[in-house]
Design brief:
The protein has 11 helices and no strands. It is an all-alpha fold. The longest helix is centred in the last third of the chain and has 28 residues. The radius of gyration is 19 Å and the shape is elongated. The termini are far apart.
């Protein structure tokens, strides 16, 4: 195998944190623990595996992704992937979170309208990529596998928690009412973009993010 592969004993503190409780009490295969891995060989392995997983997601969606295929493409042993992630579902979750963290950052412009518009624009850009389209389509199909369904739920909850900072900051600044429904606000903003990416029936116009931001704010603030 390639020079990314480590011995069966793991890679020091990084390997121990995933395989048996680790120095910080991390659970085996916990994606959050894997994503906090420090630099060095551990970081190179993680980067290679996640890149391979994202490529396979973009090419065939979740159903065609396998640990064996990811390991072969990343140039690591299959046991290395299992030791770090524990299951295919946890690898899928970590890959989707890594991709969305990079492709859909949570903006902080100082004003809720520009935050919402910037977030919608980033989402539109992400769903225009092969990986973004694969994620949207896979999410729409759902999952019969309970473990995979749980990964989808964890993915959406993580994204909503992160993006919810836009609404929480707006409430603190007095731009939105204290009783604003954060999840509903983000769903109203995101759904038209996801629908267009899924159905492909209409292009996303350059001014759509601003128009969606205005519609959402009009609804949240109420009419006089």
């Amino acid at each position: 195998m390639s020079d990314l592969t480590e011995p069966d004993g793991g890679d020091g503190a990084a390997g121990g944190a995933v395989a048996g409780g680790g120095t910080n009490g991390s659970r085996e295969g916990d994606p959050a623990a894997v994503r906090r891995r420090p630099g060095g060989r551990a970081a190179r392995v993680r980067e290679a595996v996640l890149a391979a997983a994202m490529e396979m997601l973009a090419e065939g969606g979740v159903t065609r992704l396998s640990i064996a295929g990811v390991a072969a493409r990343a140039g690591v042993n299959e046991t290395t992937v299992y030791r770090r992630w524990g299951s295919r579902e946890k690898l899928v979750l970590d890959a989707m979170l890594a991709a969305s963290d990079e492709g859909i950052p949570v903006p902080d412009t100082g004003a809720v309208r520009t935050d919402l518009a910037a977030f919608a624009r980033a989402l539109a850009g992400y769903t225009a990529t092969p990986l973004g389209r694969a994620v949207v389509r896979s999410a729409a199909l759902g999952a019969d596998d309970p473990a995979l369904a749980e990964s989808w739920q964890a993915f959406w909850q993580s994204r909503l928690d992160q993006a919810g900072a836009i609404v929480r900051r707006a409430v603190e600044r007095g731009e939105l009412p204290a009783e604003t429904d954060t999840v509903l606000a983000l769903e109203l903003l995101s759904a038209p973009i996801q629908a267009r990416a899924l159905l492909g029936h209409r292009a996303i116009e350059p001014d759509l993010p601003e128009r969606l931001a205005d519609l959402v704010l009009d609804g949240l603030r109420g009419r006089p």
